[in-house]
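Colleagues,

For the teaching module next term, I've prepared a clean inverse folding example: a structure given as C-alpha cells, and then the sequence designed for it. I'd like students to try predicting residues themselves before seeing the answer, so please don't circulate the second half yet.
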C-alpha cells in the first residue's frame, strides 16, 4: 500500500505492574473511592431536578463530598474529575442511542480502575530492557513490564507522546494502560481481495477462499485438571459453610486461584484474536461478516413453569461455546484494524447462509449433512464441500449482490437506534 497524508492516531498499550503489598492496597483504595464517587454521582443525579443537573453543580457536589467523606480523599482530584466527565459522557451516549443508561457499580461485579488523565504526571523512564518506571499519584514510583517502545524522553514530542493512562485490575493483578498519541500516515485504499467470513464453534473462523483459523484449548491439560480440582474444592467448602456465615479466607483464596486460571485463558484468547484479525486485515481489502444478534443466540432454553424448555443442558453448553469464542469482539477488532490499514468491513444478513448452496444458489432441505459436510441436494447441482467454507462463500455473495446491511468500517460499535430518554434523565 502507498503512503497517504499524515493524521493523528490514538493507541493503547497495556503492561503489568510490579507492586508491593502496600502499593496494591493504595491502588485498591483509590479504585474503591472512584467507584463510590460514581455511585454518589448517580444518586445525586436521580435526586436533583432537571435544571440542577449541570456539570458545575456536579463538580461542586463532588468537591463537598471529598471534604465530608474521608476515604474519598485518597482519590486524586484529577481522577475524581475524570469520573465526573465519564459519568456525564455516559448519559450523552445514552441520549444519542449508543448505550444504555448508567447504573450503580457493584463492589464485586465492576472493574476496578483509576484514571491518570495527564501524561506529564507519569514521568516515565526506562530502567533496562525489560522494565520501566512510572509515577502514580499518591502511590509513588512503580515498575512495569516494558514490552513495547513508548514515546518517552528524546523520543517524545508534540505529535508523539503519552497523553495519560488508566490503572486496571483483573485476576492477574494491576496493569497500566497507556494512551499514546502519535502522528501516522493515513493509508490509501487497500488493494487486497475480498473475503467472506463465517464464524463457528468447531471452526472459529472460516474464509471464503478456503483458509481457516483454528485454535486449541486455552488451558493445558494440567491447568484444566487444576481448575476442576479448585472448583470442586470451592464447592465443598461452600457446602460446609453455615447460612449467613462469612466466607473464610481459604475459600476466598480458592476463588482467587480459579479467577487467575480463567483470566489466563481469557488473555490467551485475546492474543489469538489479535494475531488472527491482524493477519486478515493485512491480507484482504474488503472483509464481509454476518450481522449476528448474539444476545438472542445465547438466550437460555429453560422456558417457563407452564411451558418448560427442552434440551436445556445442551443449549446451555452451546451458549457457553458461543460466549467463549467472543464473535462480537472479533468483529470489533476487524472493524478498527481494516479501517487502520485502508480496508473496509461490511455486515450482511445472517439467515440462510449455512443452508444455501454457494454453487447453484438454491436452498434444499438436508443439504448440510453434518457440521463439516455440505452436499447440495439439488439434482442439477450436487456440489460437495466444507460446510463452513460454503457459508463463507454465501456471505461474500450477499455483499457482492448489494445486500450489505450495516456499513461498519471505521466504527468499533454499531450505533443503536435512537430511543426516548429514560424518565430518570429528563
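(Answer key — instructors only)
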Amino acid at each position: 500500500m502507498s503512503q497517504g497524508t499524515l493524521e493523528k492516531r490514538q493507541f493503547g498499550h497495556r503492561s503489568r505492574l510490579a507492586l508491593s503489598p502496600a502499593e496494591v492496597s493504595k491502588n485498591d483504595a483509590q479504585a474503591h473511592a472512584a467507584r463510590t464517587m460514581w455511585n454518589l454521582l448517580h444518586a445525586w443525579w436521580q435526586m436533583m431536578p432537571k435544571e440542577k443537573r449541570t456539570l458545575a453543580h456536579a463538580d461542586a457536589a463532588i468537591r463537598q463530598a471529598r471534604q465530608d467523606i474521608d476515604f474519598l480523599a485518597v482519590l486524586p482530584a484529577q481522577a475524581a474529575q475524570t469520573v465526573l466527565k465519564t459519568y456525564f459522557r455516559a448519559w450523552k451516549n445514552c441520549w444519542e442511542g449508543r448505550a444504555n443508561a448508567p447504573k450503580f457499580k457493584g463492589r464485586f461485579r465492576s472493574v476496578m480502575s483509576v484514571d491518570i488523565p495527564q501524561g506529564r504526571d507519569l514521568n516515565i523512564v526506562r530502567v533496562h530492557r525489560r522494565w520501566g518506571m512510572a509515577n502514580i499519584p499518591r502511590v509513588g514510583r512503580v515498575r512495569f513490564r516494558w514490552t513495547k517502545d513508548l514515546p518517552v524522553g528524546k523520543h517524545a514530542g508534540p505529535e508523539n507522546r503519552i497523553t495519560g493512562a488508566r490503572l486496571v485490575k483483573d485476576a492477574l493483578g494491576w496493569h497500566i494502560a497507556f494512551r499514546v498519541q502519535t502522528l501516522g500516515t493515513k493509508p490509501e485504499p487497500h488493494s487486497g481481495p475480498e473475503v467472506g467470513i463465517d464464524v463457528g464453534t468447531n471452526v472459529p473462523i472460516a474464509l471464503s477462499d478456503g483458509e481457516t483459523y483454528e485454535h486449541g484449548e486455552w488451558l493445558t491439560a494440567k491447568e484444566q485438571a487444576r481448575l476442576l480440582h479448585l472448583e470442586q474444592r470451592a464447592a465443598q467448602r461452600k457446602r460446609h459453610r453455615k447460612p449467613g456465615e462469612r466466607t473464610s479466607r481459604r475459600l476466598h483464596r480458592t476463588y482467587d486461584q480459579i479467577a487467575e486460571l480463567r483470566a489466563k485463558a481469557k488473555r490467551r484468547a485475546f492474543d489469538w484474536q489479535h494475531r488472527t484479525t491482524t493477519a486478515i486485515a493485512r491480507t484482504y481489502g474488503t472483509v464481509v461478516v454476518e450481522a449476528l444478534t448474539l444476545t438472542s443466540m445465547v438466550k437460555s432454553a429453560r422456558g417457563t413453569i407452564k411451558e418448560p424448555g427442552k434440551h436445556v443442558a445442551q443449549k446451555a453448553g452451546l451458549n457457553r461455546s458461543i460466549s467463549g469464542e467472543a464473535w462480537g469482539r472479533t468483529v470489533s477488532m476487524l472493524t478498527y484494524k481494516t479501517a487502520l490499514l485502508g480496508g473496509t468491513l461490511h455486515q450482511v444478513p445472517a439467515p440462510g447462509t449455512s443452508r444455501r448452496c454457494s454453487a447453484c444458489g438454491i436452498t434444499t432441505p438436508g443439504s448440510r449433512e453434518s457440521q463439516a459436510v455440505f452436499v447440495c441436494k439439488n439434482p442439477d447441482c450436487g456440489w460437495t464441500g466444507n460446510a463452513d467454507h460454503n457459508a463463507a462463500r454465501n456471505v461474500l455473495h450477499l455483499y457482492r449482490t448489494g445486500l450489505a446491511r450495516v456499513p461498519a468500517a471505521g466504527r468499533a460499535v454499531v450505533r443503536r437506534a435512537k430511543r426516548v430518554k429514560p424518565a430518570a434523565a429528563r
